[in-house]
Structure formats: structure tokens, C-alpha cells
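Notebook B, p. 112. Complex prediction, attempt 2.
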Amino acid sequence: MEEKKTIFSGVQPSGNITLGNYLGAIKNWIDLQENYNCIYAMMDMHAITVRQNPQELRKRTLDLLKIYIACGIDPEKSLLFIQSQVPAHAQLAWVLNCFTYMGELSRMTQFKDKCAKHADNINAGLFTYPVLMAADILLYQADLVPVGKDQMQHIEITRDIAQRFNALYSGEGKPVFTMPEGFLPKAGAKVMSLAEPTKKMSKSDENPKAYISILDDFNVIANKIKSAITDSEGVIEYRPDDDTKAGINNLLTIMSAVTGREIEKIAEEYSTKGYGDFKKDVAEAVVEEIRPIRTRYDELSGNKDYLMDICKKGAEEAGKIAGRTLSKVYKKVGFVM
Ligand code: TYM
């Protein structure tokens, strides 16, 4: 039998988990569980590249685990763990730092964006963040990394680092690292802000009307969609290259991602309707998508022992897999073992 391929992905517990995180990443992880070895982590080490309140970070990390499970990630099928509980991530990141150039890191658009946003705290972690992400992926020899569009540049640099290391150290044998590939969802790879639809929906947006949190009340979700910024043309049409249609393009994308229907079909169906009717239906579709997630999330809330147990076992198992790659790397670079 052919060996199953490996999937690795994760979300930072750095804010309210948004509809963008769900449609761009988590929703896409669920089906993969059937045919792949799936590893999904809570990326808390990445989160501290911007200042976090410690109590909140701790809470958000376990809330994120609840969200994974509530969305349909099955702890019996997938390996779930907290990044900081597996020291190999920091260890491999250090080694890979020595194989990554300042020039390539300074070209990362997320680094430039975050520098603009956190001008008072441009720390070295923010700069080397993609190296830690490369370590996350390469430790597990992941074949596929299901993410949203904004993370594709980080997957590219991961591939560059892996290739560089492999070229130097693999010799005649098997490559040290598997070359990972990014994997985007069919719809929802880039969900836009509801307040400024030419900008990405972000969990750290200061304006709560810009994003939908998976944990927002249903009437709040509906109201946010109903007050989403659109345009004054009054025509429901999908024109992805026309920024004046960014709001409508985004709502059509969201509708397509939650219903699984094609964007063009949805646009056709609404072509004679007004924005008000369309928004009402989008709001209803999103609420119906989130409703069962919320029910399961609430059920998990009294279950801290169960969650801690998943983290403990997950970290042990992840540590074993990651340890094998780390030993290989340590040997290759010449550390005494
Ligand atoms: P993060 O926490 O910013 O986002 C988690 C996932 O959600 C996707 N995403 C979106 N997708 C569509 N539309 C949006 N508006 C949107 N916003 C976010 C992201 O693309 C991502 O897939 N660096 C990563 C976390 C990470 C990671 C990794 C991911 C750390 N190590 C290793 C994969 C593999 C991040 O900050 O994602």
C-alpha cells in the first residue's frame, strides 16, 4: 500500500478566529483527514512576535483547539498540538536561521505590513518569523500545507530554505527535507475585510466590523454582513479585477465558499436582485454554516481535562516525529550527538 502523504498547518492564537481563517484554512483541513496524515497545531510561538496579554494568549490557545475540533477536526484522526510544547520547533528554527538570508526575509510582504502596523515593536522575531514557519513544516516532512493566499509567500521561502539545505547536505541519499507545497481552497483563499474590501479580513483588525469572528453572536454576524461596504452601482456581478466591485466580489466569494456553489452561478441567480436581499441571504448562509460549529464549541467548553489531554498526547507524538528530523539535521550540520 502506498504510504499516506503528510499535511501540516496551523493558526496563530493571536486574536478572534475569523471567517477568513475558517474558509481559507480550517474548512479545507477537514476532508483531508480521510486520506492524509494530518497534523494541525496552535502556533503560539508565532503569536508572540506581536505583544500578547499572557492570560489571553493561554486562553486563546485552548479556545483555538476547541474551534479546530468544533469545525470538524477529529483528534482521533489528526495530530493536534501546541507549538511551544514541542521544543524541536525552536531548535530547527535556529539551524534554519543560519541558512536564510536577510535579503529574502526583508522581501516578505507580511513583515513589511507588520512593521508598518507595529512600528514601536519591530523585533527580530517578526523578521525571522518565516524561518520558524519553515521549521514547523519541514520537521514533519509535510507534503502539503493547506493555507490561505496570504501565507503562500511563506511557503515559497520554506521551499527555498529546504532546497538550499538539501543541496548542501543530502548527498547521494534521500533528501533531508521533503519539499512541501501550498494548497489553496477552491473559494475563500482570500476573504476580504467587510469594512475595507480591498484589504484582507484580519483577526487583528481594530475595527470589529471588518471581520466576522467564528465566536460572534449570530445577530452580530448578520448585522456585520448587512452593513458590509459595497458600491453604489447596484449590480450584482462578479468582477474580480475591478476594485470598485471588491465588496460584492467578496460577498459572492463568501457565499460560494459556504455553499460550495460556483460564484458565477450565484451571481447569475442574484443578477436581478438588490444588495439588501443578497446580503440577507449571505448572512443566513454564513450563520447556518457557523451554527453547528458553535454548538460543538459550547459543548467542549466545560471539558478542560479532555483538551489538556489532547495537547499532552499530541505534543508527545509530535515530539517523536519532529525529533527524528531534528536528529538528522543535527548530524548533518556536525553537532556531536
Ligand atoms: P494566520 O494565523 O494569520 O492565519 C491562519 C490561516 O488562515 C488563513 N487566512 C485567511 N484565509 C483567507 N482569507 C483571509 N482573510 C485569511 N486570513 C488568514 C491563513 O492563510 C492561514 O492559512 N504563519 C501562519 C501560521 C503558521 C503556519 C505554520 C501555517 C505558522 N506556522 C506552518 C501553516 C504551516 C499565520 O500567521 O496564519
